[in-house]
Design goal:
alpha/beta; 4 domains; seven-stranded parallel sheet; six-stranded parallel sheet; 22 strands; binds adenosine-5'-diphosphate; binds magnesium ion
């Protein structure tokens, strides 16, 4: 065999038909246009599924047309022309078609000239074509507006064309460079020559059979060329399941890999810091806190690393649960690291934990209890001396608990014996960051991830599918809670009432937050603080400017109702010292009104805060507002959250705010929020124009599919952890999720 031949056959062995570049399959021109949609290979193109299907029309003749009917007719073009629209932008293509007996008109609206001329050229006078559309009447005459059409070049093809016309017409996500029809043609070109063995199936046969789903080859054919709508739906179901299955298999593998690394068992001690802490707790744990505590205690006592997600309603007391787990580990001779997303939050955690522990955290001091440990704080902006001390305490083991921001992940940070990593408010941390911190243990540390806000179950399964999950639903007793009201910001009397309400609360010894979407005209919070301001920017934006911290501070200082009340300011662009001072003055009551941004969204805990006014509340996502209002009502006095908005109550935005005022169930709100926002905002990647591994799957709607796929995928991975017997699945995981998984997990 010649050298060259051998190479060719090797290549054809390694490269499956689906990996063939579109350039080679379709030519550079079409491939170039498809490339702009992120489609590079035959496999990519076949995974570019129709967005929807146009129903075939009833095949009829012109003389039998009825108004409003969806029809398909065969007719000849008797005139066609393009003109500019009288009003509005764009062009109009007008035509007249005839079946030899009757005539009717056609009209197409085209946003730009190129498109109009394409239509014109595809329907030259004399051409015969199939037209499908809904019959309407314009200026007394029957017409088809925007029919789909297909030219019949050879009259002998008419019969075949009629058969095709009775099938659903796939409508593809298209672009200015390539329209749906051309995409359909390109797909047919690559799909028609494929054989079953060219299309490996990542879902094992027995799973497909058990779920009664089409195989991948059949599913691809029927999703692109369905004979009936039932076929299209069946194909979509199979492909949707496949997406869920591959993703869940990837997560199951990740979980299996982490579980395979041995951990050090950290069993609870009969006497020690945890027992002493429990004895000095000023409240009793809720049932939920106790139950989750038992689960964590057991998992920490095992030599398999714990991998657990702790979800909880805002204010449900996740920190205490985490602290008890940390103390168990410290009692067993290990250290715990607590990772927080912002400096404000890290500093606050260190302070609250030290305060809750009291003498138990005063190791090495005269006041310290027997066996006391230390709490070290490590953030990026500390002084060199503070940093040196924290690093030394972490490395020597003197600090049983090390709290920090991303700074904790850096290479030179060392622990004597890291046994537990707690990640607070996970959605700001990525998988890699988790892993980097994990790598600092001698054995694999146990892992506890806490979410900032409740997230719907399927989202948890999708984003944190490699973790076991526990939920705290209960809010500790003795909390007065928050009542929420929408305040029309255009009504001066109501706005004035907001300020006087704040003044009353302050006079009663309480504190107030005033939250703004922006820092100033030109400044918003850095991206790591604000990551999901509502993007639908609806609302009468043009009529007023968006509330900004700097302006509102000035405004409130001049507000008669608040005369004599100190007004402070906190946002993410202040230096850490200034931020700490602002928080401290607010906590102590020296400055009882704090004008701020979403920096206070996560975890800030000031029990005396009883009122929060959110300005331009429609600018925030529902989950975010829920999280924000969780900052008040944490003490025994009832609290109120006032959502000021210019949005009309009858608009979707107005209704969203009303929904928030009507419920305090964070899980319910999270679902509403997710349904409203584009899926991609939650799972990342989608908007970037790159292909996303989730095409048909919708994380909220497809709960049952995701649950089924998760069970199946876990069974497959448990039986074959290395996936040696499932090479196609292993390849699908690698291909679909390479880079992208990290990307969306990071951002989620
Ligand atoms: P989150 O779950 O939102 O992070 P935290 O852990 O910050 O909630 O707890 C909120 C507040 O509730 C804290 O001040 C905490 O000390 C208090 N807390 C926690 N558990 C209880 C309980 N069982 N009874 C009363 N107060 C509690
Ligand atoms: Mg918290």
């Amino acid at each position: 065999m010649c050298h060259g031949c051998r190479r060719v056959s090797l290549v054809s062995l390694l490269v499956s038909a689906l990996d063939e570049p579109l350039k080679r399959a379709l030519g550079t021109r079409t491939a170039g246009a498809l490339g702009k949609l992120g489609l590079e290979t035959v496999g990519d193109l076949l995974s570019h599924y129709p967005r929807r299907y146009a129903e075939p029309g009833r095949l009829t003749t012109m003389s039998e047309l009825t108004l409003g009917e969806h029809v398909t007719i065969v007719a000849q073009v008797s005139s066609v022309g393009v003109r500019r629209r009288n009003r509005g932008k764009g062009m109009i293509v007008e035509g007249v078609i005839t079946d030899g007996v009757s005539r009717m008109s056609l009209v197409f609206f085209a946003p730009y000239a190129g498109m109009a001329h394409t239509i014109e050229s595809q329907l030259p006078v004399g051409a015969t074509a199939l037209f499908t559309g809904t019959v309407n009447r314009y200026q007394g005459k029957l017409q088809l507006a925007h029919p789909s059409y297909r030219a019949i070049e050879d009259p002998d093809d008419e019969a075949e064309a009629l058969v095709d016309a009775s099938k659903p017409i796939p409508i593809y996500p298209a672009s200015a460079a390539i329209d749906s029809l051309k995409i359909q043609a390109a797909i047919r070109t690559v799909l028609d020559p494929l054989r079953r063995e060219d299309v490996p199936d990542p879902v094992p046969d027995e799973v497909r059979r058990a779920q009664q789903l089409l195989g991948r080859f059949a599913a691809l054919q029927q999703v692109h060329v369905p004979v009936t709508m039932e076929e299209a739906y069946r194909a979509q179901a199979a492909l949707r399941y496949e997406e869920a299955f591959v993703l869940q298999a990837a997560l199951a593998r990740r979980r299996a890999e982490a579980a395979a690394e041995p951990a050090t068992a950290r069993p609870a001690a009969a006497v020690g810091l945890l027992a002493a802490f429990d004895a000095r707790l000023p409240f009793t744990l809720t049932d939920g806190q106790r139950d989750v505590g038992v689960v964590l205690a057991d998992e920490l006592a095992a030599s398999v690393p714990m991998q657990r997600l702790l979800q909880g309603e805002v204010g449900s007391g996740k920190t205490v649960v985490a602290l008890r787990a940390m103390l168990q580990v410290v009692d067993a001779g290990g250290q715990a690291a607590l990772l927080a997303p912002t400096e404000v939050l890290a500093a606050q955690h260190a302070r609250t934990i030290a305060a809750m522990l009291g003498p138990l955290a005063e190791g090495g001091m005269l006041t310290g209890a027997d066996g006391a440990t230390r709490v070290a704080l490590l953030t990026g902006s500390q002084s060199a001396a503070q940093r040196r001390q924290a690093l030394a305490e972490a490395a020597s083991g003197a600090a049983g608990i090390v709290v920090g921001t991303h700074a904790l992940i850096q290479e030179h940070v060392q622990f004597a014996d890291l046994g537990l990593v707690v990640v607070d408010e996970q959605h700001r941390f990525g998988v890699e960051q988790r892993d980097a911190l994990r790598a600092k243990g001698r054995t694999s540390p146990h892992l506890l991830v806490m979410t900032a806000t409740p997230i719907p179950r399927t989202v948890a399964m999708t984003i944190f599918g490699d973790l076991e999950s526990s939920t705290l639903t209960e809010i500790p007793a003795g909390r007065a809670g928050v009542s929420t009201h929408v305040v029309p910001a255009d009504n001066a009397a109501w706005v004035a009432r907001t300020w006087s309400r704040i003044a009353e609360e302050v006079a009663g010894g309480h504190r107030a937050f005033v939250v703004c979407p922006r820092i100033s005209d030109t400044l918003t919070e850095p991206a790591d603080v604000v990551d999901h301001l509502a993007d639908d920017e609806s609302g009468p934006e043009s009529r007023h400017s968006i509330a900004a911290v700097e302006d509102v501070v000035a405004q409130l200082r001049g507000e008669p109702a608040l005369a004599g009340v100190e007004i402070g300011m906190l946002h993410g662009r202040l230096t850490p010292d200034v931020k700490d001072a602002a928080m401290a003055d607010f906590s102590s009551g020296k400055v009882p009104v704090l004008v701020t941004t979403t920096v206070i969204e996560v975890g800030v805990d000031v029990p005396e805060a009883t009122v929060m006014a959110v300005l331009d509340a429609d600018r925030f996502g529902l989950s975010q507002l829920h999280q924000l209002r969780g900052r008040v009502g944490r003490g025994s006095d009832p609290a109120v959250c006032l959502l000021l908005t210019h949005a009309d109550p009858e608009t979707p935005t107005g209704k969203r705010l009303a929904a928030l005022a009507a419920t305090t169930d964070g899980f319910e709100l999270a679902e509403v929020d997710l349904r409203d926002r584009r899926e991609g905002d939650v799972l990342g990647a989608a908007q970037s124009g790159r292909t996303n591994s989730l095409k048909l799957l919708r994380v909220v709607q497809d709960r049952r599919v995701i649950e089924r796929a998760r069970t199946d995928a876990r069974a497959v991975v448990t039986a074959d952890p290395s996936l040696d017997d499932h090479p196609v699945l292993a390849a699908a995981i690698a291909r679909t999720l390479a880079g992208e998984r990290e990307e969306f997990l990071d951002r989620a």
